[in-house]
Amino acid sequence: MYKAKNYILLFSPLFLIGQTSLDNQYREDQFYFSATYNLLNNKPNDIAQRGFSTGFHLGFIRDFPINKKRTWALGLGLGLSSNSYNNNMLISETINGFQYNTIDETTDSFTKNKFTTYLVEVPFEIRWRSSDAESFKFWRIYSGFKLGYLLHGTSKFRGSLGDIDTSNPNFERLQYGLTLSVGYSTFNLHLYYGLNPIFDNMATLNNEPLDLSTIKIGLITYIL
After folding, report:
1. Can you tell me the distance from the alpha carbon of 196 to that of 208, in angstroms, rounded to the nearest whole number?
2. What is the reported pTM?
3. In which domain of life is the source organism classified (predicted)?
4. Which end of the chain, C or N, has fewer beta carbons within 10 A?
5. CA distance 144 to 58
């Protein structure tokens, strides 16, 4: 019994050192999932959104703490994103390329009209959180920049003009914007503000460049 106590006393400091070392190496919020409502920004007067436009985003962010308490960190990640935009702009394909027109809803009706983009994304974040090694509920403010590369894009129309499907109609390959995530515990407010157009300079409406960009507002949840 005496020897057992001696062994416990001998190894206790080692256990405490190991535990402290483990606590000092924790990282936060390395997997994420977000659902957003997608708004079209910089719309011409005759373009309007119809219905609910959704976005789904998931990925992994490597957390790099930069102070001793590990409340400040940098994050660099990789993810996937799907974004739909329901609207009254008809995209069709001709022998000369793609054509963009607004739908005259007094004469033509539709049940579906949307374009969708699928992106691989690289988020970069500057992170502040009130966390420690034992708490799973804490405040966070993450601001950053997200770069996206278009993998595929489509547009679909279902209505009185028939079924019209197009693939990759003059989408901008590189899309980027500012991000902000703010909240407490599981669900947090997430904002993305696009800094460049969704379509490239080949896309025109009424002989004017189609400078549509996006604002995404929703919720994001993080997992260790």
Report:
1. 16
2. 0.86
3. Bacteria
4. N
5. 16
CA pair distance 72, 142, nearest whole angstrom: 10
Instruction: Give residue 24's pLDDT.
Output: 63
Distance of CA 164 to the CA centre of its chain: 28
Q: Nearest Cα to 85, choosing from 152, 39, 21?
A: 39
Is CATH 1.10.760 the right assignment for the domain spanning 28-223? no
CB 203 within 8 A of CB 98: yes
The pair of structure tokens assigned to 197 is 């157009």
Single-letter residue type at 124: F
Question: Where do the structural domains in the chain lie, given as residue ranges?
Answer: 28-223
Residue 155, C-beta contacts closer than 8 angstroms, at least 6 positions apart:
91, 114, 115, 116, 164, 165, 166, 169
Q: What is the DSSP letter of 38?
A: E
- Assess contact for 53 and 86: CB atoms under 8 A: yes
User: What secondary structure letter does DSSP report for 83?
Assistant: E
pLDDT, one tens digit per residue, over 121-157 is 999 999 999 877 777 788 999 999 999 999 999 999 9
